[in-house]
Design a protein that fits this description.
The protein is an alpha/beta fold. It is about 25% helix and about 25% strand. Strands 1, 2, 5, 6, 7, 8, 23 and 26 form an eight-stranded mixed β-sheet that branches. A five-stranded parallel β-sheet has the order 10-21-11-12-17, covered by helices on one side. It has a three-stranded antiparallel β-sheet with strand order 18-19-20, with no helix packed on it. α1 crosses α9. The chain starts with a strand and ends in a 9-residue tail after the last helix. About 45% of the residues are buried.
Length: about 425
């Protein structure tokens, strides 16, 4: 396997978060290497469906020392465009990336870490885990009760409707992924049933501006992890129902219902060949409407206080989510009508390669704003609401990486491992 190589810091993952950390470490003269299992932006290259576009506008793709420089600032990148952007960033910052170098183990050794890869070993005083939060698609346990003859797949496997059998499709999950795939598959001529549990509703455009512009300007996306009442709960909030299209369209349950998608409550179980749905659809939709209106109230208040009322469209509210009086609570999965189930039920990271006592009882890294507990000089980056509400966005990686790079330098100099203010 060759000689063991050394670096002061090892970054695992060459997506936008790992590259942002690489730039921040280089700015602080910390020698480091970025280890990537595939190519730069590997997940974007290999685990996304064909029609997907970023949910954030182009202007919001901001990384340390790098930003969008095209003409379509309010557009939404396609996946090939995202890959090109991240590739260009790696080149621009001369990131020391070792591609096709899968990390297979990380263990404590002395005052640092021994990192095993398929191409040899590294010794490092510090480590930054930026391998992503969406490595494994989550499939609920109820899937074990499915009758034979139904195909199942996840968004990581889905590419386009042509790969699906002709016939009905049950999409489980109504966050950003679920609503997009429900619409696309229904428009391909298949009857789609959407199982919707907790979700976060928002318009694509409000008062003439992208909702992301409002949240950026009003400081909503900069809210810190230590400023919320329940950070554990905040980190579990589903992704906002948004879609990036040239028309800047809003896609929500009302739009899907008008298209002909059948709405059902959250999938509660599968018994005797029948899907069993929760009876709380109406309540879930009312709660999503309430939270959306609270966000719009925040935006309106900020616009008023900052003198924007005369420069943008006037405030308005959107039609409440329409739910039929008594949505059916069962769906026969054994009669041949449903041919495919698509599990848009979220993702989880893969930490099977970590040989460190840093995982909680649910298999997640225990950390305080990205500073890993029980492992000095170890950090995690790119997770939901890591340090700010925008942490999981391309636009959020830079601020988090700057904070953690400062802490890493302090640690190397003999400073405290405690969390930063």
């Amino acid at each position: 396997m060759g000689a063991v190589r050394k670096a002061t810091a090892v970054v695992v993952g060459a997506g936008h978060a790992g590259l942002a950390m690489s730039r921040c470490l280089a700015d602080r003269s910390v020698d480091h290497v970025v280890l990537e299992r595939g190519e730069v932006a590997n997940s974007w290259r290999t685990e996304r469906w064909d029609s997907l576009r970023l949910l954030t506008p182009n202007w919001q793709s901001r990384l340390p020392g790098f930003c969008y420089d095209g003409q379509d600032h309010d557009g939404y990148r396609t996946i090939p465009e995202v890959v090109k952007f991240v590739d260009a960033y790696a080149d621009a910052i001369s990131a020391p990336v070792e591609t096709n170098t899968k990390v297979i183990s990380v263990a404590a050794e002395g005052e640092g870490y021994r990192i095993g890869t398929e191409r040899g070993e590294w010794l490092s005083r510090s480590i930054v885990i930026a391998s992503g939060a969406c490595n494994i698609a989550h499939i609920p346990k109820v899937a074990a009760g499915l009758p034979a003859g139904i195909e199942t797949l996840t968004p990581m496997q889905y590419r386009n409707p042509d790969q699906l059998a002709q016939g009905g499709v049950l999409v489980v999950g109504a966050s950003a992924t679920g609503i997009q795939l429900a619409a696309e598959i229904h428009l391909s001529g298949r009857q789609v049933t959407l199982s919707a549990g907790e979700h976060v509703r928002a318009p694509r455009v409000y008062r003439g501006r992208d909702i992301q512009w409002w949240m950026d300007q009003a400081g909503v996306l900069d809210e810190r992890y230590d400023e919320v009442d329940d950070i554990v709960r905040a980190r579990k909030v589903p992704s906002i129902q948004l879609v990036g299209t040239p028309e800047r369209m809003t896609l929500d349950l009302n739009v899907l219902r008008k298209l002909g998608v059948r709405l059902r409550g959250g999938l509660a179980g599968i018994r005797d060949g029948k899907a069993l749905f929760s009876g709380s659809l109406r309540n879930q939709c009312a709660l999503a409407d309430l939270k959306m209106n609270r966000l719009l109230d925040t935006i309106d208040e900020w616009a008023r206080d900052n003198g924007l009322n005369g420069q943008v469209d006037p405030p308005h509210r959107f039609q409440p989510t329409v739910v039929e009086e008594a949505p059916p609570l069962t769906l026969d999965l054994a009669n041949g009508e449903i041919k495919t189930i698509l599990w848009a039920t979220g993702y989880r990271p893969d930490y099977s390669w970590l040989e460190l006592p840093i995982l909680d009882r649910k298999g997640q890294i225990a950390h305080d704003g990205g500073i890993i507990a029980n492992a000095h000089g170890a950090y995690v980056l790119g997770l939901q609401f890591l340090r700010r509400r925008k942490s999981a966005l391309i636009d959020g990686a830079g601020a988090d990486a700057n904070d953690l790079a400062d802490h890493l330098v302090s640690y190397l100099a003999g400073g405290s491992q405690s969390a930063m203010n």
